[in-house]
Design a protein that fits this description.
Distance between the termini: 35 Å
Oligomer: single chain
Shape: elongated
Length: 527
């Protein structure tokens, strides 16, 4: 008996040690940096983290954010010049319909900017640029279409996190293997403004338009209008928004005679553009108008009748008594009449613009104006509706999982896939567990809550939410759930090997190597 007791104690000690090791790794690697940023270099393996001294940003490898996919280097010569090092390795996902990155330690209800980069560069030597979908949790973000193998594509979304984690998922739509170069998350929380980008809320997100203007290197339509080709971002922008220079227009010039004063944002400015951006303004040379165009291209599918959200930023930079006054219109629809920017104070004009055709912003000087129009910055977003809100708390499950695997079943569907509940494979305090088979032939276990169950809706919700956020090869996955009137159930992947207790106490005992592997895999599963 003493030998058996010591052996059991040794097994427990080994499992505990391995669990602590796994948890310790996740805690260290999954933390936000001191700015609250998460900056992932996908497929990077040389170190766990490294620091960009210029921007004071800590980049991390993607180990611990996803356990799926494979990594590959990218030949620098196959990509456009001037790219960051994060483009020179990728993580790609040759198996599985949907593969996700999980970003943790977030604030439920907090607003975040999420940005993803993709540089194909023919890394797989197949010369087959893929097309795949990108999701933020259950919500469609955009379709990634690699139209040119050497071009870098960047996509960005501003959204509210419903929980303390977010999942960014790449979905295979049968048009090539999904891959990713890098992934960023930035909290949009200002000490000055109560609610940044209030148009992004629990009912809708803002997706930054991708459209490649002439002489502009990247697709995202967040522009400054200065003459410096350098991107403006952190540390100049505390939210690390990336402002690139608008296209080169020969008839425009930098605003002359700029004041050296600091541009101060007011508490009513819900967009908080940094001083560096607001000072990067253009004005026409010997002309009374400026025209700014945008449309759509193959880098982003905008749909049949898209809704754009346009932001235009203005501030007077010259300390002058001469009048600067102009009309602002969008597609010949007046946005502001006889508008005069305030000295060193930002003004942001916004407008919802409908339709996928070409659009034009026009700044036209009035007859009374002495000075030409000017503009500092512009942002153009697509408005994306968020899936229906969680009016019923049990529906939270669908908001922390994906639309392909974590589906909501009807009771009628459960009867069909279990053949009218004819095969019981387990039982517990929750109720009976039945064998089932989905339409695609996949085996599942259907756990039905009985009316006499000691586990109520609160416990059911806790279990469902916990399982919905777990995506690990060593843990059984939640396929879906049912809340159909009085019928409540969970649907899991079916594992035909029995439970761990049965294996440990079975007639054919596991050897020590098998037991150690189980302990190690269980520890990793607790990520």
């Amino acid at each position: 008996m003493g030998h058996v007791h010591r052996s059991s104690w040794l097994v427990c000690w080994m499992i505990t040690l391995l669990v602590l090791m796994a948890l310790g790794f996740v805690t260290i690697h999954g933390q936000l940096d001191r700015h609250g940023f998460i900056s992932i270099d996908c497929g990077y393996v040389r170190t766990l983290t490294y620091v960009d001294q210029k921007r004071d940003i800590t980049y991390a490898s993607d180990k611990g954010f996803t356990d799926a996919g494979r990594i590959h280097s990218v030949n620098k010569q196959n990509l456009q010049t001037g790219l960051a090092d994060r483009y020179y390795n990728v993580r790609y996902f040759p198996s599985g319909e949907r593969n996700c990155y999980t970003l943790r330690s977030l604030t439920p209800g907090g607003k975040y900017l999420v940005r993803a980069g993709f540089g194909y560069g023919d890394y797989d030597k197949l010369n087959r640029p893929p097309t795949f979908d990108l999701y933020l949790g259950v919500n469609y973000w955009t379709t990634v279409t690699i139209a040119n193998s050497s071009t870098a594509y960047v996509f960005e979304i501003i959204a509210v996190s419903p929980a303390d984690f977010l999942q960014i998922c790449l979905v295979n739509i049968g048009s090539g293997t999904p891959f990713i170069s890098w992934l960023d998350l930035r909290p949009l929380k200002s000490n000055l403004v109560v609610d940044l980008y209030p148009e992004a809320n629990v009912t809708q997100s803002l997706v930054l338009l991708s459209y490649f203007h002439d002489t502009v290197g990247f697709g995202p339509n967040r522009y400054h209008f200065g003459t410096n080709y350098e991107h403006i971002r952190s540390p100049d922008d505390p939210f690390d928004r990336i402002w690139q220079r608008y296209e080169d227009v020969p008839s425009w010039t930098d605003v002359p005679n700029k004041s050296n004063g600091l541009i101060q944002n007011s508490t009513s400015d819900a967009y908080d553009a940094p001083d560096t951006v607001m000072r990067s303004a253009s004005t026409p040379v010997n002309a009374s108008r400026m025209d700014i165009y945008w449309s759509s291209d193959s880098s982003m599918s905008v749909g049949v009748d898209p809704k754009f959200f346009l932001l235009l930023y203005f501030a007077e930079l010259e300390d002058t008594q001469e009048l600067r006054q102009f009309d602002v219109s969008v597609d010949d629809d007046q946005l502001a009449t006889a508008f005069s920017p305030k000295f060193l104070l930002p003004t942001v004009l916004s407008r919802i613009v409908q339709g996928s055709s070409n659009h034009t912003v026009s700044l036209v000087a009035t007859s009374n104006s002495v000075l030409q129009p000017l503009i500092s910055a512009m942002e153009i977003y697509l408005v994306r509706p968020v899936n229906e809100s969680t009016t019923d708390s049990l529906d939270d499950v669908s908001h922390s999982a994906n639309p392909f695997e974590n589906r909501r079943f009807s009771y009628k569907e459960l009867k069909r896939i279990t053949n009218n509940f004819d095969t019981v494979i387990g039982r517990g305090g929750f109720g009976l567990v039945y064998a089932g088979r989905l339409e695609n032939g996949a085996s599942v276990a259907v756990k039905m809550r009985s009316e006499t169950s000691s586990q109520g809706n609160t416990e059911f919700l806790a279990e469902a939410q916990h399982l919905a956020r777990i995506h690990h090869r060593n843990l059984v996955s939640l396929v879906g759930y049912c809340k159909d009137k009085k019928h409540v159930s969970l649907v899991y992947d079916y594992m035909d090997g029995g439970n761990l207790q049965d294996r440990l106490r079975g007639q054919e005992p596991l050897n020590w190597l098998q037991r150690l592997k189980i302990a190690l895999d269980s520890a990793y599963g607790l990520e």
